[in-house]
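Ticket opened by: R.M.
Priority: normal
Category: complex prediction / small molecule

The reporter submitted a protein together with adenosine-5'-triphosphate and asked that the result be attached to this ticket for the collaborator who will pick it up next week. Submitted input follows.
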Amino acid sequence: MLWGLPLKYSTIADAYEEIERTTKRLEMTDLLVNLLKSTSREVIDKVAYLTQGRIYPDFVGIEIGVAEKLAVKALVRVSGRRDVDIEEELKKTGDLGETAEKFVAAKKQVTFFQQPLTVQRVYETLDKMAKASGSGAVDLKLSLLAGLLAAASPKEAKYIMRTVTGNLRLGIADMTVLDALAIAYGGGKEARGQVERAYTICSDLGRVAKTIAEEGLEGIGKFRVSISEPIRPMLAERLSSPEEILEKLGGKCMAEYKYDGERLQAHKKGNTVKLFSRRLEDISSQYPDAVELFKKHVKAEDAILECECVAVDLDTGEMRPFQELMHRRRKYEIERAIDDYPVSLFVFEVLYVDGRDLTLESYPVRRGILERIVEESDRVKLANGALVSAPAELEKFFMEAIENGCEGLVCKSISSDSVYQAGARGWLWIKYKRDYKSEMTDTVDLVVVGAFHGRGKRAGTYGALLLAAYTSERDTFETVTKCGTGFTDEDLGKLPKMMHDHVVPHKHSRVDSMLEADVWFEPALVIEVLGAEMTLSPIHTCAMGSVRKGRGLAIRFPRFTGNYRFDKAAEDATTSAEVLEIYRNQLKRIGQS
Ligand code: ATP
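Result attached by the on-call engineer:
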């Protein structure tokens, strides 16, 4: 290890290049282990962020944000070439990184030796660019970027350019970085569980990296939930009958209404409240009214709570469809959206209160605390729940939930080990949803991983999208269907633009597909799809081999419902295990009829 010596940016660029060449997760992990081992402790957090194309954890909300035009200008300045030449080349490669590499290489032949770029310098410059604001911001960004490019080798220029424009896309999942950290500094893969626990409660890859490098597993063991660092949400498995649910939960459970809105994690510190989305973005500015409600109705100085934020009709008190909340995603005129689309909060979790981390307490203890600290009103309520121990009771409560405009129930374990499983989809929460009741029509949220060119009327846009389910065990996306139905002309017009930034030159390393798409995407966009039936398939890889050897599962007659699930990250899509569950459930229903 090169302790004391500043890490050169070229070391990172070399590693990126090798990582890009492989599509195998294990090889990628090995390369990352080598990189992390050769990284000094002072900058290891920065290296962790940079591998993800960021300079801070997502929830901080600081992005480098250099527009393509500005990047081209910087290249003009450094290469001495005309912008038309650069744009011409850019059209050919479609990749600003490669274009920068080429032009910087041409220039380098005539420049003299320079000080090598260090990671520290690159990071600090990117940080300045990200924080530049006000009238001189554009010029400042331009000169900072030009300064970096002037000092960079061609290869370094390639990765700097991709990083600043948000196109690094090495395909390294957070989970792969955790694997690599466990191996590099935790004594081996066995440490992965501990490293992951730290990450799920702080969501800050850089902090985890720095702590394990400096203090080893002992430091990692000291991680506690803290205000302002969002906790990765606990998720539910799904089952399709009250009998199965009760059996799985030991004969009794707390059944809570499953409200259909947007999940919010509220961090209250004194009189300030921050709200994080299910994807852990800070969305406080979208819900100033919810911020006020939390301030007013939570009787604790400091607390972390979770709720479902639901659009409501204030006149009738009725809940409105989830889609209405999309109007809150705008940046301007939020005041008007607040009036037009008011919300109510249904609080269902407390994870921290006045210095106490509650994530390892049982659900009944947490619910008890929640009942004490939330002061209910017509806009703030505890999630409606009932203790049930018989299938008929559960079914009755389910019907009541549906009648009241909910999606179904989330049935929660009340055992002594019913901890808050941050970041995990486990069996301590089981959802029981309405769509299981209708004949073979389950909506699923699938990830767009590829596309096929359209013909005839659809020339110039996509004819169909290749969709995949997520599998957390392997951290891959497994294809399950090709969907070309349900898209309006407007959808078709905007899809290529929406997907433009996610295009990758070959199948993404985390995508498992036997089909060859015309265009490949990094897994990012999630869309809701309604399927008519499911079959075993030799060409789709979803849950491959789970039902029969050499066969995956496919959704037949899929139709896009019109709902883009921007609130979900690719990893939040329906999982292959859930698809398998739907398939088994469908078989049962066919068997019954
Ligand atoms: P879905 O699309 O079905 O909401 P999901 O992947 O977003 O699924 P799951 O964990 O599978 O999330 O289902 C639970 C979700 O239901 C939570 O993420 C939360 O947003 C919502 N929800 C509504 N009411 C409750 C409740 N009482 N307890 C827990 N979650 C609830």
